[in-house]
Request: fold
Amino acid sequence: MAKRVYLFNEGARDDRDLLGGKGANLCEMTRLGLPVPFGFIITTDTCREFFEAGNKLPSLLEQEYRVALDLVEKKMGARFGDPENPLLFSVRSGAPVSMPGMMNTILNLGLNDDIAEGLAKKTGNARFAYDSYRRFIQMFADVVLAVDAACFEKELERYKAEHGKSQDADMQADDWREIVECYKRLVEFPDDPFEQLKMAVQAVFLSWHTPRAVVYREMNNISDSQGTAVNVQAMVFGNFGDDSGSGVAFTRNPSTGERRFFGEFLFNAAGEDVVAGTRTPLPIEALQEKLPQVYDELYSTQALLEKHYRDMQDIEFTVQEGRFYMLQTRSGKRTGRASVKIAVEMVREGLISEREALMRVSPEHVEAFLHPMVDPAAKTDIVAQGLPASPGGATGQIVFCAEEAEEQSALGVPVILVRRETTPEDIHGMKVAAGILTELGGMTSHAAVVARGMGVCAITGCTDLSVNSEQGVATTNAGVELRRGDTITLDGTSGEVMLGDIAKTEASSSDDFQALLGWADKFRRLKVRANAETPDDAARARELGAEGIGLCRTEHMFFDAERIDVMRAMILAQTREERQQHLDALQVFQHTDLLEIFQVMDGLPVTVRLLDPPLHEFLPHTPEDIESLAERIGKSASQVRTLTESLSETNPMLGFRGCRLSVVYPEITAMQVKAIINAAADAADAGFRPFPEIMIPLVVNVREIRLITKIIDKCVRELTQARNISVPYRVGTMMETPRATLGASRLAPEVEFMSFGTNDLTQMTYGFSRDDAARFIPKYLGEKLIDVDPFVSLDRRAVGRLMEIAVRESRAVKKGIKYGVCGEHGGDPRSIRFFHDLGLHYVSCSPFRIPVARIAAAQASVGFDTND
Ligand code: PEP
Ligand code: MG
Reply:
């Protein structure tokens, strides 16, 4: 039978899985000879056993922990349940991965009337004994017996009011004794300390399933199956008098990362008083003044622990009658900026290696250097929750249409553009908005993709809201009305919508951040390219470290107000000649942008994708817009309406789009190829080194590729002859239909690169519309029908399998193909790890994700074994 109970001198820091993080660290500190009140740990295996048996403790468990308890008694020189010389315990949860404050704790366990009286006698401090007793009753009732803590608070308030006491410090021994009597009338609890212990152990196990713990695990991707350990530890008392107290400290500043011991202390207080925030703690220097020896011991202990764990520690300690005790150490939670500073400085101090530093920083931490972030401590009035589509924080006044966004922001008013969903026509408003909030749309919807590309904070799929643009109001499920002009704050990193202006941290780079990125580049194998379609985006991408452009969605070049009408006129043209005339105009736009992009990306590859979206997406929808377009392009409204209707599709995402457009309108493709090659030739003439790659979207078979390659080659031949130039270019395909991936070996001979469009590939593998999935994905997640949104993190099982088949089978017939990913997953750290394992050459993501991708790619290379 596996051992279920471990004394603190029987474990070590590596036993986290079995003993939980807290328990493993208590053992480690005991091993280091630090003053840790002794105790024992019931294992996480026992917790799972408990759940498997239908929430029943194993029959032998009590016997096992009683043996341990005897040894603790010997060591502490006191006895559990003995009124003459009582020993009290704290009973705390402790999971393998830290979940601060999420589960239950019971302090002062082992008290009843006799023992409280005994404690008063033994300590000569009745006030302390009865204060501890009332705390115990309240905590036990709350945690074990599920009695609402508020009824105790009420009693206490009543008593204080009746007796003219304003603070706890005014309460004397007799007052606490009275309070205990009151409390006992509110709840029936077991007198027998062993019964108390058994019930407490059960309650801690059960707290693994409290809603807040479940939500925390979901948010932090912690497995549900781990379970918690139970730490049973001899109590020491910070509320024993003025030479006692409790404190928490960090070995470095957790918000800035500054290398300076940082902590808070409360005299004559239990640990819970510090954590609960009911009294304002003093800076740790107060302890130095009053109890200098204790401070010295604390200071050397924290230094030792940081050196030992080689990471910033968050410690809890207690001082009882001038004696120092360590209660907990764990790796401290920190802000993104602090995490980078600490990791980089620890390398410089020789504490950790560069590889370890990389593994210490979560890719999301990097966002704090790229976007303003909502201060977590300042968050209030959260009124709705949507999908975290584009990170960072933004505050502004609500507007409901793109035009208003432009007007207001021209007046210097920051705006949040609130839409039911966005379309290409909203781009001009999205560009100037501080943030974007949509009721519909998933993580790869238009709003999400465009906002991420622009680095604008966005929340999509906020189905908590019902947006009525005409009336200028968005109403939450709870009935809160967000009106035009109201100020709201979006947290695009968490998906929360808040009322008012919530504090944010500034974004700025730092030398430490640059150093870390430099190390990332040293270790990563995957290249990182950008999804960018404007020269500005390309320049920003290059600044952020892009090694090329992996996806230039050429349609985005036509969304500008002055260009979209030409595009529309081209789509609505009724003769070849008319269409050609508009295509010539479009070619000029495309040429101008591409020339600049090739210049910015000098020496690096630029993958230009042929036109992809359904043409209907470019056309106006409302009668007014149709009429005004008709006027602008010299057609009648009814003509425009009829043509628009003729292009409307039942299922546009599976309809007339992608390379199907090239098949039906080869002249559009020819225009694009001419723009690409001419721009590349002009860039080369100007002394730059352009490397254009022409990418064919939404391919399903090799014949499409052959047909389109023929158009491309013919165009290039004609141009190069006419201009007497030679432009090196490559032709490749997107891999975004399941059929393309399964038929990759047939596509391979015709292409030089394959770029996985994981947005469409996910959409078509699941049959989940990427624009509509937000309606049901939250429910799927809630019901655990899926673990993560497949549009956020790549589904390895099926989508990943299709990719793996495509790479393996195409490689078998042709060496030298370059493989990349240009779907939104290219910027997702978890997916990047998979792409690394798959042996792809590059990922391509929006410019602001590039640093995140560089770190994630390095982490994938370094792996999780950091003991080098
Ligand atoms: C994709 O489908 O993954 C992709 C990159 O193309 P788009 O998002 O433009 O459809
Ligand atoms: Mg696609």
